[in-house]
TrEMBL record:
Gene3D superfamilies: Histidine kinase-like ATPase, C-terminal domain. This is Anti-sigma regulatory factor (Ser/Thr protein kinase). Keywords: Kinase, Serine/threonine-protein kinase, Transferase. It comes from Phormidesmis priestleyi Ana. SUPFAM superfamilies: ATPase domain of HSP90 chaperone/DNA topoisomerase II/histidine kinase (SSF55874). It holds the Pfam family HATPase_c_2. One of its GO terms (molecular function) is protein serine/threonine kinase activity. Residues 42-147 form the Histidine kinase/HSP90-like ATPase domain.
Amino acid sequence: MSYATPEKSSIVKSSCVKKWESLSFTSTLYLRPILDALLESAPALMREELRLGLQEALVNAAKHGNQLDPQKLVSVRYAKAQGYYWWIVSDQGDGFEQQSTCTCLSNLPDEVSDSSLVSECGRGLYILHQVFDQVLWSENGKEVHLAKQLRPLPIAGLVGPSFFFKIVETCWRRWVPTSAPSA
């Protein structure tokens, strides 16, 4: 079980985060513009994975935390520093108590596809733990702290497309006959 008070969270007290950005929105499930804003600076290769994880966190806050009450807000603080993206998602609901036996917290092998294994704590929580490197809940269950480490780019990210085009062109010439026999 990973609980942390905001003051004890490594995300909040990390000295590497110099500036936090923030946004708030009324409880809604229309999250596209919010997700676009939160992922604007994320690398293209990570955007879809992060979109899935953040969408789950925001839906949980709006739907389960705030009960889609338009009078209640979901707040997100976010930053990028020291090779990590950080998010803190807060709601104004009653909070929740995560089950201590939730299997989504354990490292399940990739080949596990039995949905009953994750149903006890919810698909959304399972997704959070698969997408993010760190998932910490506040003790009152009204706030989740998320972190994702930026991965070094593979060689494809270090060289331009023209380099790869030349490699493909060279390989193509080896495999394609230079002249077709006449009939």
